[in-house]
Amino acid sequence: MKILVPVKRVVDYNVKVRVKADGTDVDLANVKMAMNPFDEIAMEEAVRLKEAGFASEVIAVSCGVSACQETIRAALAVGADRGILVQTDAELQPLAVAKLLKSLCDKEAPQLVICGKQAIDDDASQTGQILAALMGWAQATFASQVVLADGLATVTREIDGGLETLEIKLPAVVTTDLRLNEPRYASLPNIMKAKKKPLETVTPADLCVDVSPRLTTLQVAEPPKRSAGVMLADVAQLVDKLKNEAKVI
Ligand code: AMP
């Protein structure tokens, strides 16, 4: 069976994000970009399932500008077999990405799509869920364990106060939580080998998908600066401040 893993190119999680002076968007000029961390976990899970004999092929898909090729190459270097770039300069919102992925799922017929639980740039946490709905497939979100057997996936999810285990029929969409696995690093030989793996480029028009945004961003702003803390001499002073200044007790 095939596993499809959507990998998004986002601002590297170590970078302190800056807002453009006109407040229209995040400033991406000269900013280090990387694969969305939850997608690294998704790719690792797919590669492990292939190594365990459950999958025959792992396909990495990225939607966006031509530089998303780098994100796909990073996925190929850790074990994906081939990549598909859906190339567009248009702003892509989760609904548009889900429609693009649906079109690819119709063509490639994967049994499993493993998405990240959220992209760390838009924090939308919508794409996998919308894709499952568009396909009419089962979904299990925020997975911390995935076990495949007999056309079923048994997925453990971390929820408030414990663990929930779902059994879903394949084909399905699973989204990854932080504790699902620890992604491997790409070795130099594998980075070199990845350069030779197949990477197909298509456009939204090739997939007959209208990606025009449905939502308009009105303003992007930095969070308010936190004021510096103060050192207090003892608990009595703390209680006094909580009572008389913060008025919380
Ligand atoms: P979001 O709904 O934007 O929080 O994204 C959730 C997941 O959907 C990500 O972790 C990716 O697996 C996938 N995804 C979202 N946008 C893209 C994109 N432009 N290209 C590839 N995968 C994407």
Task: Looking at this protein, list some descriptive labels.
6 helices, nine-stranded mixed sheet, binds adenosine monophosphate, alpha/beta, 249 residues, 27% strand, 11 strands
Q: Short description, anyone?
A:
Helices cover 27% and strands 27% of the residues.
Describe the structure.
There is one protein chain. The protein is α/β, with parallel strands linked by helices and 249 residues long. Helices cover 27% and strands 27% of the residues. It has a 9-stranded mixed beta sheet with strand order 9-8-7-10-6-1-4-5-11, with helices on both faces. Strand 8 (152-159) and strand 9 (162-169) form a beta hairpin. The mean pLDDT is 96. Adenosine monophosphate (AMP) binds next to helix 1, strand 4, helix 3, strand 6 and helix 4.
- The largest sheet has its strands arranged as 9-8-7-10-6-1-4-5-11
Give a short account of the largest sheet: 9 strands, mixed
Number of continuous helical runs: 6
Structural class: alpha/beta
What is the helix/strand order?
EEEHEHEHEHEEEEHEH
Poorly predicted runs of 5 or more residues: none
Shape: globular
CA(first)-CA(last) distance? 60 Å
Helix content: 25-40%
Binned strand content = 25-35%
Mean pLDDT: 96
Number of strands: 11
Rg over CA atoms = 21 Å
Cofactors and ligands = adenosine monophosphate
Sequence-ordered SSE layout with sheet pairings:
Blueprint (H helix, E strand, L loop, with lengths): L1 E5 L2 E3 L21 E3 L1 H15 L5 E8 L3 H10 L4 E6 L6 H15 L3 E5 L10 H9 L2 E12 L2 E8 L2 E8 L2 E5 L11 H7 L4 E4 L32 H10 L5
Parallel strand pairs: 1-4, 1-6, 4-5, 5-11, 6-10, 7-10
Antiparallel strand pairs: 2-3, 7-8, 8-9
Bound molecules: adenosine monophosphate.
The site of adenosine monophosphate (AMP) has 24 residues, from α1, β4, α3, β6 and α4.
